Automatic annotation (TrEMBL):
It comes from the Bacteria. Residues 1-19 form the signal peptide. Residues 55-117 form the DUF302 domain. It holds the Pfam family DUF302. InterPro entries: DUF302, TT1751-like_sf. This is Uncharacterized conserved protein, DUF302 family.
């Protein structure tokens, strides 16, 4: 019984480390994964941000003879926006640059998903939930994913 209670305590303590569904913003796309990701990348570069990487999870799975539905992650940012967050708390560097996942669900629908910046950074000491960069990140992610979704 003591082992069971210890295991439960460890699991409960680890819960804050996992993003809940409330922390993840999902936007339905009108296109397939590749088209949506191309639109997202164009929107990001058009907004003056830097694309650091485009990760194709399905292609990676195929290289090891495994299958995944189409899924890609775009990693991007703007040092003018991210640097103040990292100055306020260096641990923000674990969450930045920003990331957006574009994926196909089991029903064939394409989605864009990203972690809400307020939830992502708001629990870090030294970072106010009202910080201007959090509002700017939130607005930018909304606009960029809206464009990518075909809105």
């Amino acid at each position: 019984m003591k082992r069971f209670l210890a295991a439960v305590a460890v699991c409960v303590a680890a819960l804050p480390a996992f993003a809940s569904n409330d922390d993840i913003v999902k936007v339905r796309s009108s296109g397939d994964v590749a088209t949506t990701m191309d639109r997202l990348e164009a929107a990001v570069t058009g907004a003056g941000a830097t694309v650091f990487a485009r990760v194709d999870h399905a292609a990676g799975a195929a290289k090891v003879d495994m299958e995944l539905a189409p899924a890609q992650v775009l990693i991007f940012g703007n040092p003018k926006l991210g640097t103040p967050a990292i100055q306020d708390n260096a641990v923000a560097g674990l969450f930045l640059p920003l990331k957006v996942l574009v994926y196909q669900d089991g029903a064939g629908q394409t989605w864009l998903a990203y972690e809400d910046p307020k939830e992502m950074l708001g629990d870090l000491g030294g970072i106010s939930e009202d910080a201007g960069y959090i509002k700017t990140m939130t607005g930018a992610l909304g606009k960029l994913t809206g464009k990518a979704a075909g809105e």
